[in-house]
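Q: Sequence in, structure out?
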Amino acid sequence: MTDPITPDPTTHEAVPPFSAVGEPAASAVGESAAPCAPAPLVFVTDLPDAEDVALISDALDEFNVQETGTDDRHTLAVLVRDPETGRVVGGLTGRTSLGLLFVDLFYLPPALRGAGMGSEILRRAEEEGRRRGCRAGVLYTISFQAPDFYSRHGWRVFGEVPCDPPGTSRVFMTKDLA
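A: Exactly. Output:
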């Protein structure tokens, strides 16, 4: 039995070879097929290995550095710890790269909202972005999450994409940091 996430290696011969642009490779009419290595397998998963994600991230980062001559990609986290347990209970995660601060995730438990902690977390992330030379910040939120919170802190909407449930949208926002 084959794992549903892992492709069956015996089926690789049925997968057509692909050219550099992702189209099936063309062969000259009348030429006999020369033996070649099996074509790479393409598959979808919702459980990628951390090593696979790191490989893709690192390779893209290396490409960006080669193209721009700038090696400034760094992760960023502003965390909130429970004073009794020391466990992280919320905060912000993101990264900085090529002069931009990216806010990827931001969560505070309901009991910690409304007292200015979210504003402090965002302020610290923006401050660190500036310290790292970022000219602007970019994030997206969902219309039922926090676009008003970000707007109160100087972020502005530059696009919206409808999503589910109907009437909801992804809200893309930016802020000048320079």
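The CA atoms of residues 80 and 86 lie 9 Å apart.
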